User: What shape does this take?
Amino acid sequence: MSLTAHIPSHRKPRQSASKTALRAGVAGGVLSTIAVAGAAGPAQAEPVTQTIEMPTITSGLSTTVAASAQATQQVALDLETQANEDAAAESAAKKAKKAKAEAVRKAEAEKKAEAAAKKKAEAAERASRTSVRTTLSASSGGSGSSASSYSASYSSSNATGSAAAVVAFAKAQVGDAYVPGGTGPNSWDCSGLVQAAFRTVGVDLPRVSQAQSTFGTQVSLNNLQPGDILYWGSAGSAYHVAVYIGGGQFVGAQNSNTGTVQRSLDYDRPTGAVRVL
Assistant: This one.
């Protein structure tokens, strides 16, 4: 047997001519490309610019943004309006509080002034009456018998006719309030009551006590009759009047403390009297 016979070969099989030629062509092309690139030099490649068209979304977005802006503006306006209203309310409340305090202060001042004036008037009235009483006491000589006859004469008559009507009206007003300038029907001052009483019988007296104290005939306090007009102070300048009702009593609108009362002449003796009826 030959030494070389049937010994398998370990060499790779030979490639076919077609594959060899293909590989050669590819390699040649690559080398040619490299060569061309090398020959072209270091020139930089042109940047590639490409415009990408994005989808349009501004239509819906603009509506949403506009609505949001309008809502924000409305909220701002509402807040501003509320702030203005709150400021106005606070200012009005402060003004009202100040006005109330001022009204209370004025009312208190007026009340004090009224009380002071009333006190002063009452003091003046008391002083005048005291002076009148002193004068009457001096003129009577302080005689007890004179005082007794003075009181006895007051109860010597009974009211009749028109005088009775005047007396009845005056007595019917007892308990009514005293109000300066009052002419009824439920509040009086002294001359307003006397005038209204005589008006019931068709006699139109002057309005004020000074004129009433000279209307009619002057009569002595020792000879009084029901329906006579009593006055305090001098005739023509009297500061108070009342109606004598008989029995040593009179009815008069005295002052704001007592109102219209029925009193004995000894309670507050008059200066004089006039007879109208």
Notes: Helices lie at 17-40, 58-139, 144-154, 161-172, 190-199, 209-212. The radius of gyration is 63 Å. The longest strand covers residues 240-246.
